[in-house]
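User: Reviewer 2 asked us to show a designed sequence for the structure in our supplementary figure. I'm pasting the structure tokens here. Could you produce the per-position amino acids so we can include them in the response letter?
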């Protein structure tokens, strides 16, 4: 069932090429889809590995979606490393990669977007107005074009994953969203394309992110169910110890991504976003019931 790791990845640069590839597949073949913005790293590879195991055909996409960037500078400086990316795709046995350009996805006159609903306006959505509307719009369009059986998303972007699952359920989209665990460096920093922007000293200080999440986790495991206490311990690590600007440090109920309620039972997730110099980093951790 698995493709050979030496297979060359087929580059599909337009919707018509994608359509031709999609209709060339055997009827019974399942298609796994991994949408990305490129600058691939081991976090992305973990998604490819999982998708490779679960599907006959594995399709990736690389598109830096202008609709989901609320800061022009962030969009412009997003790294573009297509040749290195293709080597990774080939090593992971990806069969084809869809590489649309802006015109291909948003031809002149394109004017329709998906509203993300309540959860689209809080945390990441509050810090980055329009981000989730842009993200869901491109993801829906990619789903409709690629027609996958399963699509793979990282828990690293927990709110994104939540909203993609919600859209899939609300709009009855005929596919399964598969969550994939966050891949971290040995020292605990979550892999992210934006880590490459960090200077040496910033990279060292960024360890406070995992320290903050683990401190919240330890408190939760010891029985604390007061969100304000968990948030305060995270802020202590991020702000007072590392001097980061904290955009948010919060605890949400994993079921509905609403702020966790004191002493309510449920699955709690600590989430945070900080600014490290000019770089914005996000991370999260599902809190464990016991140590
Ligand atoms: P991006 O290219 O940043 O849009 O990410 C593409 C996909 O890879 C998204 O579903 C991300 O959540 C996922 N991803 C990014 N970093 C990681 C990581 N460190 N671990 C697991 N998944 C990740």
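Assistant: Here is a per-position design you can include in the supplement:
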């Amino acid at each position: 069932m698995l493709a050979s790791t030496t297979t060359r990845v087929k580059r599909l640069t337009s919707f018509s090429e994608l359509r031709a590839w999609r209709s060339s597949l055997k009827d019974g073949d399942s298609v796994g889809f991994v949408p990305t913005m490129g600058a691939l790293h081991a976090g992305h590879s973990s998604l490819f590995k999982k998708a490779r195991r679960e599907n006959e055909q594995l399709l990736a996409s690389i598109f830096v979606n202008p609709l989901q960037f609320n800061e022009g500078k962030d969009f412009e400086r997003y790294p573009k490393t297509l040749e290195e990316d293709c080597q990774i795709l080939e090593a992971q046995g990806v069969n084809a990669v869809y590489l649309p350009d802006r015109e291909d996805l948003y031809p002149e006159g394109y004017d329709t977007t998906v509203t993300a609903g309540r959860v689209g306006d809080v945390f990441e959505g509050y810090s980055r107005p329009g981000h989730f509307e842009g993200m869901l719009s491109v993801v829906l369009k990619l789903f409709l074009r690629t027609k996958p059986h399963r699509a793979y998303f990282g828990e690293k972007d927990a709110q994104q994953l939540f909203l993609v699952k919600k859209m899939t359920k609300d709009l009855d989209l005929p596919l399964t969203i598969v969550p994939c665990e966050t891949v971290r460096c040995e020292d605990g920093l979550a892999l992210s394309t934006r880590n490459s922007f960090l200077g040496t000293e910033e990279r060292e200080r960024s360890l406070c992110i995992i320290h903050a999440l683990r401190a919240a986790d330890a408190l939760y495991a010891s029985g604390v169910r007061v969100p304000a206490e968990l948030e305060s311990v995270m802020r202590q690590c991020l702000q007072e110890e590392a001097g980061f600007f904290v955009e948010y440090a919060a605890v949400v109920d994993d079921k509905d991504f609403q702020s966790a309620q004191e002493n309510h039972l449920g699955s709690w997730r600590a989430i945070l976003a900080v600014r490290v110099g000019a770089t914005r980093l996000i991370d999260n951790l599902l809190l464990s019931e016991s140590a």
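For the response letter, you might also mention the following. The chain has two domains: 10-180, 193-286. The pocket of adenosine monophosphate is lined by residues 36-37, 43-44, 46-47, 153-154, 156-157, 180, 182-183, 190-193 (CB under 6 Å).
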